[in-house]
Specification:
The protein is α/β, with parallel strands linked by helices and about 325 residues long. Helices cover about 35% and strands about 15% of the residues. Strands 1, 4, 5, 6, 7, 9, 10 and 11 form an 8-stranded mixed beta sheet that branches. The longest helix is centred in the middle third of the chain and has 17 residues. The chain is globular and about 55 Å long. About 45% of the residues are buried.
Length: about 325
């Protein structure tokens, strides 16, 4: 199943692509009545939001837009793709901004046609993850066997490279949700590695119905996000701002992550993404434009929405 098909399937969970809920601490059998907002010390009814930029390290245009968004304060969290060509640039930024909320976007696919990347681990250690040219597969077909042991080798290699280059990640998430939506064995690998490095993992409670193994694997101290907003391929460009405004106005109390993809619509990013428009340069420019706009800031004030970060969540979970 392609990434687009996976996203379209996930989008069927709601008619507006708005998955509503609250962060909860979850055990396989029970759900605590105390929400993450409670644990963070916020009063009942508070609307908390993480504005999270994906795919940093993919290109210079993505890095530049994300950095500008982060420094403007409207985007307050992001995750980095260690295997990508422009990771050293964003790793240097992370090293010089140790207080930033920067996680790792664990990456096991290389989905573009002409702009490719491969593993951090030695190729002979992770052959099931690679195509005939030594890059990550474009996609994971249903008959594609991905070896879980090799996945674990690659995840550890990515985390270790990030740390060696000065990144101190605040959380982990999964590029294209590969480690979330491809079975318990791969999710357990991600969770095991996250526990070893004492990092929270982005998991959405509303995924439990379609992927019940997620809840089965989580322990009482794992953090679960069940309120997430993202844009799908079917949305028309002229509806971009309208979608985000509606999502912000419909927020329920709790903690929400907006998963966005800022970038600059320049020659570099157009070349890297030219084979299809989804998550391409114009798409990413629209995300950048909205989340750095005065309109976005005004809506946060009007709706009494407060921004928080994964760093705050991780510190709370660690008792800091």
């Amino acid at each position: 199943m392609s990434y687009r098909n996976r996203l379209e399937k996930s989008n069927k969970w709601t008619s507006a692509l708005l998955i509503i809920g609250s962060f909860l601490f979850v055990s396989p059998m029970t759900i605590s009545a105390q929400t993450l907002a409670d644990r963070l010390g916020y009063p009942p009814g508070t609307k908390l939001v993480i504005i999270h930029a994906d795919d940093l390290g993919e290109t210079h245009a993505v890095n530049a837009a994300a950095i500008k968004s982060l420094e403007a304060g409207s985007v307050n969290s992001a995750s980095l793709m260690v295997p990508c060509p422009w990771f050293p640039e964003i790793a240097d930024y992370a090293k010089s901004h140790p207080g930033g909320d920067l996680g790792l976007h664990l990456t096991l696919t290389s989905e573009r046609v002409y702009y490719r990347w491969g593993p951090v681990a030695a190729a002979d250690k992770v052959p099931s993850l690679l195509d005939g040219n030594g890059y990550f597969h474009h996609d994971w077909e249903q008959n594609q066997h991905i070896n879980a042991k090799e996945v674990e080798i690659e995840l550890r290699a990515q985390i270790e490279r990030a740390i060696a280059m000065g990144v101190r990640p605040t959380h982990l998430d999964s590029h294209q949700y590969r480690l979330i939506m491809n079975g318990k064995e791969l999710f357990d690998v991600m969770l095991r590695v996250a526990h070893e490095y004492k990092l929270p993992v982005f998991v959405n409670r509303d995924w439990f119905a379609d992927y019940p193994y997620l809840q089965e694997s989580l322990g009482p101290d794992d953090i679960v996000l069940d309120h997430t907003v993202t844009i799908g391929p079917e949305l028309l460009p002229e509806k971009w701002a309208e979608f985000y405004i509606s999502a912000l106005k419909q927020l329920k109390p709790g903690v929400t992550e907006f998963v966005i993809h800022p970038g600059f619509d320049d020659e570099e990013l157009r070349a890297a993404t030219r084979e299809r428009s989804t998550w391409g340069s114009a798409w990413r420019q629209r995300d950048f434009d909205f989340f750095t706009s005065n309109q976005f800031r005004q809506i946060l004030v009007q709706e009494n929405v407060k921004l928080i970060t994964w760093r705050e969540i991780a510190n709370m979970a660690a008792g800091k």
